[in-house]
Amino acid sequence: MLDQSSTSSDKLLYLSELLSAMSLALDLTEGQSPGHCVRCCWIGTHIGQEVGLSESQISDLYYTLLLKDLGCSSNAARICQLYLTDDIQFKADFKHWNGSIPQALRFVLSHTGLKAGMAERFSAIIKVLKDQGEIATELIETRCQRGADIARMMRFSENVALGIQNLDEHWDGGGLPKKSSGTDIPIYSRIALMSQVIDVFNTASGRVAAITELDNRSGTWFHPELVEAFKKVSSSEDFWLNLSDNNLLQNICKNDPAQNAIIVDDDYLDDIAEAFSKVIDAKSPFTSGHSERVTIFTDLIAEQLGYDSETRRWLRRAALLHDIGKLGISNTILDKPGKLTDEEFEQIKMHPVHSETILKHISVFSDIAACGCRTS
Ligand SMILES: [Fe+2]
Ligand SMILES: [Fe+2]
Prior knowledge:
With 376 residues, this protein is mainly alpha-helical. It is 63% helix and 0% strand. It has two domains: 122 residues, Hypothetical protein af1432, CATH 1.10.3210; 177 residues, Hypothetical protein af1432 (Orthogonal Bundle), CATH 1.10.3210.10. The protein binds fe (ii) ion (2 copies).
């Protein structure tokens, strides 16, 4: 239990520190290696600086990149339901799709209903192939719209919200959901999608593979000028050394290229914790509203126990975020109607550990990081 004498309100909290740590939870949901959003932030802000974005534009770009996957939990259950598959593996593998039709067909066949019976699998494949366009639009629209809404709840500008909302639009108009093209797509989205592809391919297969992928998609997915800007900044060995540095998360906070370190006060921290709890609860229909209800009960108990208002405030934040690690658990487990296998139960038991790992990166949360472990 939280010690009333040890709440952390006297420590300064920077927005970059808070959100870079929380982005680790988004990486889990997207099936990416820890630090994906942070690495995208490093990559994308360098591209933005190379093309001459202003200081305030770099600041908006910085947060678009960290939070590009804010809506990622909102379509996880639907993916699981439609494709009868593990949403996390599905999302991880989907990021390697290059837009070609033969690859899309192979993707559907290799990801749909692998553990289902033959008839169920066949029926799911037919449905997915028949309605492929509508399904892709629905899944991407849900994720992008939800991500933008949560960014607004976190008090971000329209630049950041729209940057997230348009993440999957392509330079040639072949993206989703609006099929916007060229400079109609916000520059924040254009850079974020490129940064995402660079990190996915660099992490999986190295820098040559990442640059080859950029070249292959230049003029279709990506704005050619931005591709050239990336090649320029990535010609320095230091760029790649910093990108693979184990301390990149701390480094991007310390060297915030936005140069406008924003301090999070108590009211803002409450708003961010509440907004993020909606990301957590959106992962599964079975957890809808869970964090909110846990917060109400927590506060009622804390009041009965006579905790002071400052301690109750921290306990409410802990309650809102206690299940942040659940973002790393597949919906095949979270939404399973029957009894879990031993292996599935082992995975469920990992979610409070993930919660603690993420929250421990935030200095002011040192007192509450273990709450997930102790309450779950
Ligand atoms: Fe919980
Ligand atoms: Fe839990």
